[in-house]
Structure formats: structure tokens, C-alpha cells
Structure prediction request, 446 residues.
Amino acid sequence: MRRPGHHHHPFHCPDWPVSQACWSRQNPSCYLMRFYCPPQCPTDCIIDCASCRPVCHCNRPGGACQDPCFVGGDGITFYFHWKKDKDSGLVSDANLHINAHFVGKQVAGMSRDFAWVQPIAVLFDDHQMGADKVLLLIFIFISMAAESVSGCKRVACRRREFKGCHGIVHNCPAACPETCKIDCRTCKPVCYCDKPGAVCDDPRFIGGDGITFYFHGQKDRDFCLVSDTNLHINGHFIGKRGDGMKRDFTWVQSIGVLFDDHKLFIGAKKVAQWDDSIDQLAIAFDGEPVFLPTKEEAQWAPAASVLTITRSGRANEIVVEAANKFKMTAKVVPIGKEESRIHNYGITDDDCFAHLDLGFKFYSMSGSVHGVLGQTYADNYRSRAVVGVKMPVLGGDREFLSSGLFAADCAVARFKGSERAVMEGAVDHEDIQCKSSFTGRVICKK
Prediction:
């Protein structure tokens, strides 16, 4: 008897998983690597070479399978039962129309038919095409008048404890085609920057109260994002002045985090041409560079184990957690040509303005916490941004301005550090300066 995992063969037990391989030479890190099909489809999967994971045929965007289960272009799964012996339009565009004929039966006690797609008819140009068997369909649309998802990043759930979602690949939604992740509990793609605690884009903040606002600051300056008694976070803003603009376009390039008697630096290196596979994160802890292997789930922790830094992707994405204080996601993203064109950023080929998209979750805050983001978690906070306008902007550059990335000297600073640090003088906030150089190296000096 053949071992399970070899190529599918008529004598194989149908429940045994077969193995498949990536045959795309455009993905050299995955080319010819072989994987077992997942339990949901033990004999019917392919390898997604981009993510280098096995994927069930019917769990990809564009799928229409079984009692029809559809996976939309947005990656969301839904069912459409229709009626047996009836026809329904699946796709209709200016030069493409697809109808399906449903077959099925009704079981006693059921209020609807069990139904499956039997034949389909496709119209395009002046042609017609049909198929007349019960079908498992995977539609891949090359050109559509409607918004396409062809440029969207594909992501998958990596957490093995979620067996019903692990390894299933989804397209990022149109709202964030390059910056999403999978919520393994719901098995749906979600945008990084659509949750309270987010700091993304031309800085767009979502406060602890759930209200979205913008804070532009100034390029090449440092601003206090969060300041509490034992946690202080500054952000360094980069940017450029657009033609005819009265303000800078700005992005958060790096952050300096103070807690207890420790300092954490996270920054995006300066990059001309962006490549997703090359890591552009710069990290330092207490003045020493941190080197993380470029593989998913690689982890680093200092000897004192006061925090952990874990890669959530193969490159450019990390999760940082300090016990009982905060959890933070940081992702390096560029300004793409299309984004620059739409917003008139004027990005040139010598600098893609790589910056950080950040997400914060705070475990303990005092009622007097302050900072651009921190104040939204304070007691009795009321937003000063004008709600209801297209782009609610929060002012206050002067009260949030800091003299350096590790300086806790903004007008609203609350930081005192740990009791030990205060008593022993263990922290001098200005003694260490960290930044990422133009070559990408982390430079920390006293």
C-alpha cells in the first residue's frame, strides 16, 4: 500500500491527504516545496506559491462550490441556495455574463431546496461557452469594469489552533488592499488600521473612544503619542510639502517607547524601491540593536523578559508585548505609486517614504494619560476634532512637540518611570539616541 501524501491515485483511500507542490519559478523560496492538503479538503487542494501554503480549491476568492458556497472577491464567504431547475446570473459586466442552472432536491421537512450548480453559460465578446456537469467553479477575472481585487495582497491564518481557518488564504479587502490580516476567529480579512489604537497613513488615529481623527504634526519633528506615569511613546514624523500645500504630508517613521527603566526603538529604514520580501524594520532595545530572523513567528526577548518581540510575517511585521503594560503591532509600509497619484503626494523613485502602521492595545492606563492618542483613553475625555467632516483634524502641535525621540518633555508629559528608575536614577531620557540611518543600520549613541 502506498503511503499517504504521494500523488493522488485511484487506489488511495479518499480520506488520506495527498501532497501538492508549488510549480511557479516566480516564487523561488517556495518552488517545488511539497505540502499535504489540509483536513478540510484532503484530496482537493493547490499550493498558493505567494504564501507557500496549501489552499482548498473552494476556499479561494471566486469560488462557487457545494450547496453553493461562494467566496467573494472581498474574501468573504456566503451561501446562495436559489431553487432547483432555475437559472441565476452569477456575473454580469459590460463584456462578460455568466449564468448558472441549479439542480437539486427538497428533503422532507426542509423549507428550501438543496441545490448545486449543474451547467453554466458564459457570454463574452460574440462568443458563447457552456459546461453541463455538476461543477466546482473557481472564477478568476482578469479585467472587470468594477473594482478589481487583482492587486490585493493575499493573507492566511497561521494559528494552528484554529483548524477551520488555518492555512486558508484570503484577499485583502478593497479598503486596505496591501495592509490587512486574518482574524482567525471569524476567518475573515480585516484592515490593520480600522481598530481603536491605530496610528496609520498620513497620520490617521482611531482613539480609545472609537473616533477617527488626523494629526499632521510637522516633518522631521518628534511628537508625544502617549504619555502616562510609566509609559511614554514618541513618534518621529517624516514627510514632504506638496505643491500649493500649506502643510506637510507626514507619516510616522519611527517610535521611541519608555517604560520602567527601558527604551525601545522601532523604525522604518529609508528605501528607494520597495520589495515586500526584504525586511526594512530597525529595532533596538536599551540602546542595543535587535536582530530577528526573517521567518514568521521568530521571537526575541531580553534576559529580563520584560517584553517579547515576535514576527507576525516573514518581513516588516512585528508584535511587541510588555506584560501588563501594552501590546503593539508595527508594520513597515511604503507609499505606492497609485497611492501617491491619488493623494498627490509627489513620491519620487529615490524614496518611497517607508513608514510605520501601528496598532496599540493598553492593559493599564491612569485616568490622566495624555498625548495625541493617549488622551483618548483618559477619564472624561471629549474629542476636540470636528466630528462629521470628511477629514477631522486635531491641532495642538505645540503641546505634543518633544525635543527628541526619547524625550519625555512635551507640555502634556506624565511620564515618571518605574519607582526603581526614579529612586536610583536609572534612566536619563536623553542619554541614548537611536535612529535608522540612510543605509538602514540602527545607530544608537550616547
The chain has three helices and 33 strands. The longest strand covers residues 248-259.
